[in-house]
TrEMBL record:
This is BLOC-1-related complex subunit 7. Its main location: membrane. Coiled coil: none annotated. It is found in: Lysosome membrane. InterPro entries: BORCS7. It comes from Ptilonorhynchus violaceus.
Amino acid sequence: GRSKMAAGGAADSQARFGHSVKGLLTEKVTSCGTDVIALTKQVLKGSRSAELLGQAARNMVMQEDAILHSEDSLRKMAIITTHLQYQQEAIQKNVERSSNLQDQLSHLLK
């Protein structure tokens, strides 16, 4: 009778051991799954931030182009302004000369 009980006890402890192993496995699988999900989220976040960085870089390049274009336009406008100033001075001199001529003519015609 004793060996039967001992066998029963052994089977019992084996069943308990099996249960605890199953429990540990389930726990491990669950934590592994959680880790995988966390890792996936991290990777997605990383790719998203890389995407955003790329977009920011593209925007910077576009702005740089715009700034260079503006600088070029300003330089051209400065040149045009200088030319206009020269023309204005020439016109003023011509006006002064013509008014001098008119004065001389009116003196001659008196």
